[in-house]
Amino acid sequence: MEKNSKIYVAGHRGMVGSAIVRELQRQGYTNIITRTHKELDLIRQDQVEAFFAAEKPEYVFLAAAKVGGIIANQSALADFMYDNMMLEMNVIHAAWKNGCKKLEFLGSSCIYPRMAPQPMPESCLLTSALEKTNEAYALAKISGLKYCEFLNRQYGTDYISVMPTNLYGPNDNYHPEHSHVLPALIRRFHEAKEAGVAEVTCWGDGSPLREFLYVDDLANLCVFLMNNYSGNETVNAGTGKELTIKELTEMVADVVGYKGAIKWDTSRPNGTPRKLLDVSKAEKLGWKYKVELKDGIRLAYKDFLENPMRAER
């Protein structure tokens, strides 16, 4: 990408999209195009086609998605599948129709098989059954990733995909029911500390292993790959490090300053037992993460405190 290339970031108000915009600006890119959902509904094909025909972006970062934690995924299966499949197909297809030079699609490590080999290499995609709690989201994301691959194979496009692990950081969603585990813990422990609650109950037994990547590190990789990678296979984005949910919970409580007891409700689902990405591909390309987890949680908590309205999302 040239510094004045026309770059469209889809989903710029979300955690990932806003981080990509920050990273592009940090690196001196000056011609970044964004649209709010009110200005452009990506689920509406007519609106997307009109936008691409008028703007003709040269590069596209497709970070828009309908996302959420276990409760959100289980309670809105049809919505998660339809919304994600429609928006990604509309954007990718319109980009191709309008001569976009390169598109980068954001997947998610949760679309790998439930019992994938650990750490998970890019090649394990579609080799066995998906995790049932987010099957609808996974099927939609796999479709977008595969559509990029099939356009490359049929039409010679240069469309790539990135597979991030669990993300956190500025502009996260702290909704009590619809957020992912780390921001949900930040909010719960903060509110428990403020209210002087003696104990906090968490879901499951704390045994699942998880990996977390600070969102600004992901954004740095996204821009790096747009400039340095072409290929049909996705690229994993993570740290290559993992910890139990119990260890994560204790770390968040420590950062927030919550001193009460932590209990576990084993009647609630754990989700996938282990999710660690094999990040050797990104490292061989010359990229490595920078922000360690505890430092990142401190930054995320600072963002939460400075932006109280985000707790209402």
Which percent band covers the strand fraction? 5-15%
What is the SS-derived class? alpha/beta
Give, in spatial order, the strands making up the sheet with the most strands.
2-1-3-4-5-10
- Give the CA-CA distance, first to last residue: 34 Å
Instruction: Describe the global form.
Output: globular
Catalogue the unreliable spans: none
Indicate the radius of gyration in whole angstroms: 19 Å
Q: List the secondary-structure elements in sequence, H or E.
A: EHEHEHHEHEEHEEEHEEHEEHH
Mean pLDDT: 93
Question: Main sheet?
Answer: 6 strands, parallel
Task: Give a written overview of the molecule.
The protein is an alpha/beta fold. It is built from ten helices and 13 strands. The strands form four sheets. It has a six-stranded parallel β-sheet with strand order 2-1-3-4-5-10, sandwiched between helices. It has a three-stranded mixed β-sheet with strand order 11-8-13. A two-stranded parallel sheet has the order 6-9. 45% of the residues are buried.
